[in-house]
Specification:
The complex is a heterodimer of chains A (234) and B (227). Chain A is built from six helices and eight strands, in the order αββββαβαααβββα. Chain A has 234 residues and is α/β, with parallel strands linked by helices. The longest helix of chain A has 20 residues, at 10-29. The radius of gyration of chain A is 25 Å and the shape is elongated. Chain B has 227 residues and is of the alpha/beta class. Chain B has two domains: 1-34; 37-220, Double Stranded RNA Binding Domain. Helices cover 42% and strands 28% of the residues of chain B. Chain B has helices at 2-32, 62-65, 85-99, 134-137, 178-203, 205-220; strands at 38-39, 52-58, 68-71, 80-83, 100-105, 120-132, 141-153, 159-172. In chain B, the strands form two sheets. A five-stranded mixed sheet of chain B has the order 5-2-6-7-8. A three-stranded mixed sheet of chain B has the order 1-4-3. The longest helix of chain B has 31 residues, at 2-32. The chains are: A alpha/beta (234), B alpha/beta (227). At the A-B interface, strand 4 and helix 3 of A face strand 7, strand 8 and helix 5 of B.
């Protein structure tokens, strides 16, 4: 009869302790983030693989408030989903419809769409590139409060930091979906995430960062996906 | 003998410190004081507009072709030398081609060799370029504002009217890529101004009326008086 015996050496024991400590450390390093997502649906979406969707950052005074990495995160998150639409690149859309979606000329409300679509060549160009839905993204992440202090010193024998720094970050984003064919709003998604980040330092600074922008991105992408996937419901 | 060796070591050590200090200063100077020219280089899109059924001539003078913004370094900003002349010639070509039935380049406002086959002459110019850095505005954005003048002339070179307009562009400051941020803000300002101009050019009733009046005047003037 063969018996199996668990062999435990001091080496493997230490390794398992380290492995079990790792998730705890990761949990400890991720500071808390709270987020709230609101969704409003006005009409249902008509989808097919030929239907194009473009995410546009709302611009003001020649620039956008929304960070480029947030737009990238949103595009990547939607690209990973099984959507019934294809995502059209933002810059290609702006170039193809220049000058009608620039900072000063873009329609501010869906009510301005009929006038825009009646301009020579605009409707034809939109049909040509196959974009039906526009998602206007607005908002940003910012540090709203903070405090503490830290001092670092380096000498011949080494260096180190001592202190404690904290700050609050708020990420507020909104995505408005427009149907270019029906010239009206399909719905809207808004995300509000906040969190406190800390950096305690006792020789080595340990950053515990609240990833509010990432939480907002995931929340908005998930809800937007609901508008453009099979299980969409009004 | 021992004293001499120690003195030599000290002298060598001081020399080394001195050399390092000089090298550090040279590095700091090369990083901070000198500004390499930043060429704004971007492709601009063809506008989606209905063209006007007239021919136009466009005149790019040397100040526009060679336009560069220069700024000395100060407490809040690096030194800047931003060359935007060539990019503007490309931009105006790209913008005006689809607006007019035919667009020709002219090398002066006064025609020296007879009648020109155009209804109007256009002379764009840059009035002012301003750059605000994050250090100056206490924001995280580079902001560029470009003020333009667009002067309209008859084919024989008489002044008709002038439009003044501007474009504004912003770009978020990125670590170690100030050049890229300024380039983005400049291109955004150029696009902003171009969008306004293109819409105004194709809808302005005053301009069309004046061009038509100019065309009828030209038709009444004997050809040998044109030059």
């Amino acid at each position: 009869m063969r018996t199996f015996r668990k062999i435990t050496s001091p080496e493997t024991g230490r390794l398992s302790i380290r492995i079990s400590l790792l998730p705890m450390l990761v949990l400890l390093l991720a500071a808390c983030t709270t987020s709230r997502i609101d969704v409003a649906r006005h009409i249902s979406t008509d989808l097919s693989r030929d239907t194009g969707l473009v995410l546009l950052a709302r611009k003001k005074d020649g620039g956008q408030k929304t960070e480029e990495d947030f737009m990238e995160c949103l595009n990547n998150a939607l690209a990973k989903m099984q959507l019934l639409v294809r995502i059209y690149p933002e810059q290609d859309f702006l170039d193809n419809l220049f000058p009608w979606f620039e900072s000063r000329t873009a329609p501010a409300t869906p009510g301005e769409l009929p006038a825009l679509l009646s301009r020579p060549g605009v409707s034809e160009r939109i049909t040509e590139i196959g974009v039906r839905y526009i998602v206007w993204v607005d908002g940003n992440s910012e540090k709203v409060d903070g405090g503490g202090g830290m001092s670092c010193a380096v000498g011949p024998g080494g260096g180190g930091c001592f202190g404690f720094v904290w700050w609050d970050t708020a990420s507020v984003y909104e995505a408005n979906i427009w149907d270019l064919q029906k010239a009206r709003s399909v719905g809207a998604v808004s995300a509000d995430a906040s969190g406190m980040s800390y950096v305690p330092a006792l020789l080595v600074p340990v950053p515990l960062i609240a990833r509010t922008q990432n939480a907002a991105c995931k929340g908005v992408a998930e809800q937007l996906g609901g508008f453009f996937s099979e299980d969409r419901s009004l | 003998m021992l004293i001499t060796r120690t003195a030599r070591r000290k002298a060598a050590s001081l020399r080394e410190i001195g050399l390092r200090f000089v090298a550090l200063c040279a590095l700091a100077l090369s990083v901070c004081a000198c500004s390499t020219p930043l060429h704004v280089d971007s492709a601009f899109p063809h506008p989606v507009v209905a063209g006007l059924p007239i021919g136009a001539g466009v005149y790019y003078d040397e100040p526009l072709r060679q336009y560069a913004f220069k700024k000395e370094a100060d407490a809040n900003s690096l030194a800047w030398n931003i060359e935007i002349g060539a990019a503007h010639v490309r931009l105006f070509d790209q913008l005006l081609q689809p607006v007019f039935e035919n667009l020709v380049h002219v090398d002066g406002l006064r025609s020296g060799s007879g009648k020109r086959p155009v209804s109007i002459l256009i002379k764009p110019s840059i009035d002012e370029y301003t750059l605000h850095t994050p250090g100056e505005t206490a924001t995280e954005f580079y902001t560029v504002e470009i003020h333009y003048n667009l002067a309209f002339y008859s084919p024989s070179g008489e002044f008709i009217q002038r439009w003044s307009y501007f474009g504004r562009g912003r770009s978020r400051s990125e670590l170690f890529s100030a050049d890229e941020s300024v380039q983005k803000a400049t291109v955004a300002a150029m696009r902003d101004a171009a969008a306004w101009l293109i819409i105004e050019l194709t809808k302005s009733p005053d301009l069309h009326t004046q061009i038509q009046a100019q065309q009828s005047d030209n038709a009444n003037v004997p050809e040998d008086h044109e030059s």
